[in-house]
Amino acid sequence: MRSDLGAPETGVERRDQQQAILKAAAELLTEHGPAGISTRAVATAAGVQTPALYRLFGDKDGLLDALGSYGFESYLAEKRGLEPSEDAIEDIRRGWNIHVEFGLHNPAFYALMYGNLRPGRRPAAARENGEILRCLLERAREQGRLRVPVETAARAIEASTTGAVLLLLAQPEHERDPTPLTGLRDTVIDSIISTEPATDVRTTIAERSSALLAALGDGRGADPLVDAGFRATEAALLREWLETLA
Are 112 and 70 in contact (CB under 8 A)? Predict the structure, then answer.
């Protein structure tokens, strides 16, 4: 076991030591699950003194947060690399599938991230995953496909994916059947989206403004706006506004 408790001389050395500790912690996590992660066990496995671990990660929660990000890096890299398609809803389905597949193939890390609740603290990897989901939903909103607010949709998807994966992970491995999750995915997504893209609001306003202008005429001769009680200056101003909207 190392006895050099001083701070690493360079940032590279510090990162190398952090990576060595996280690698050791990841191996313990895979073998024993979240319950097997203690600062003493991790320090021993990494060949460092426990104070070095606290110096690098602050406390056990800091270590678990960093470990979650370490384990989720490949997952987040795949999510970050998703090329947006023309159909935001299809992108959300793809994101759902990636999430579920990662959870089932990496049960220990998934349980650490989503099953080891620490009130008031959410791992950085989980926060980033939530931000990616909200960006996908924001695109769907811009396309007129959401029937609920973005935050409501995000909570519905997060609750259903996380709950479903944790439920499967609680079962013996040979009994985990992800097939029903496709139906759950479609049910949840169908509940938050419109079946057809909404008409662009700006286009609708422009078309209606143009139609109203045509119906009102240019105001020369008999003016229906003046006949309706508008002053000539008010009628001219209204036409100017409608032309702007059109």
Answer: no
